[in-house]
Every structure is written in C-alpha cells, then in structure tokens.
Amino acid sequence: MEVIGHADSTNIARMLKAEAARQQFVIADLEGTASLMVASAILAADLVLIPTQGSAMDASQARRAISFIEDQAVAVGPRPYRVLFTRTKPGFATRDERVIRETLAAAGVPMMATDLAERAAYRSMFTFRQSLEELDPQAVNGLDKALENADALAGEVMDALRGVRKAA
User: Fold this and answer.
1) Is the pTM of this model over 0.90?
2) Which of 94, 112, 141, 155 is most buried, by the most CB atoms less than 10 A from its CB?
3) Can you give the residue ranges of every domain in the chain?
4) Within 10 Å of residue 50's Cβ, how many Cβ atoms?
5) Residues pairing with 128 in the sheet
C-alpha cells in the first residue's frame, strides 16, 4: 500500500486518474465536509462510500452527500455510492441507528450490509502506526474480530465494484 498526500482541489482528479492507471485499487479518504476537493474526488470515483454513524447529525450529512451525488449525476451521469455505517456496536443497534437505517432503506438509499464496527484494534492502528496485519494480537484486544470485520467489508466493496464495472 502506498499513501500519497498533498492532494488539493486543483489536482485530486488528475492524481486519482494517474494512480488508477498504475494501481488496481485507489482509495481516496477525504474529510466529510462539502468542498471542491471532495466534489472532484466523487466525480472521479468508481464507487463512493459515505460513512455515517447512527446519529441524526451524521445521517443529515450523509443525506447532503447523497444529494450532491444525485445532483451531479444529472450533468455527468450516475455515480455509484453506498452508505457505510461506522463505529457501530457489534450485535447491537441503538434505536436511533435502527430508525436511520429504516428511513434510508425506505428512501431506496443503497447501504453496505457490512458495518465498520467500533473496535479497539482500529484505534490501535493509529496509536502504533501499523496496519491490522502488523499489530500484535497479544497487545491488541479483539484483533481477530477486527480482521474479520475488515475482510468482510473489503469483500463487499470488491463485490460492489464488480457490479459497478459490469453495469458500465
């Protein structure tokens, strides 16, 4: 994996296109605020993941991102996207989270089936500056569950991308 920084609104689309020519997969992880850089990345993406937590404030921000994507589709064509619930409690959904999921589903918003659960191992990646695979299972609680969760999410993203490419 290679991390490339220094992207801004004047170069992100070119950077993503150049990397896509060199790499099988390119991931742009950007802030969740509306900006020209985020808009450019969305327009260059094969698949946009919209992370949200189970709160009304996060759902409102997700709705804004979805509205932007749908508005841009009028000019440049459809941009495939999925809402990804993050920092969820494994095996437990709050009432707010359930209501938000039901509301999104009723509106026909595509959602990932796999959540990115709240796990100590994900925080440890930043603490120790290591990938999940590099972390010490003796030092990090629940590393095995985090690896399973990450693998399941990666598999679902791959399936979504295959579907996008097949439809194109």
Assistant:
1) no
2) 112
3) 1-42, 46-167
4) 22
5) none
Q: Angle at CA 154, nearest 5°, toward 90 and 53?
A: 45
pLDDT digits (tens, 9 = 90+) for 25-35: 888 888 776 67
Number of C-beta neighbours around residue 136 at 10 A: 10
Q: In terms of CATH, what superfamily is 46-167?
A: P-loop containing nucleotide triphosphate hydrolases (3.40.50.300)
- Token look-up 């950077």 returns 15
β-partners of residue 81 are 48
Q: Which residue has the higher pLDDT, 125 or 3?
A: 125
How distant, in Å, are the alpha carbons of 52, 111, 138, 157 from that of 58? 5, 14, 34, 21
Q: Which of 132, 47, 53 is nearest to 97 (CA)?
A: 53
Strand partners, 82: 49
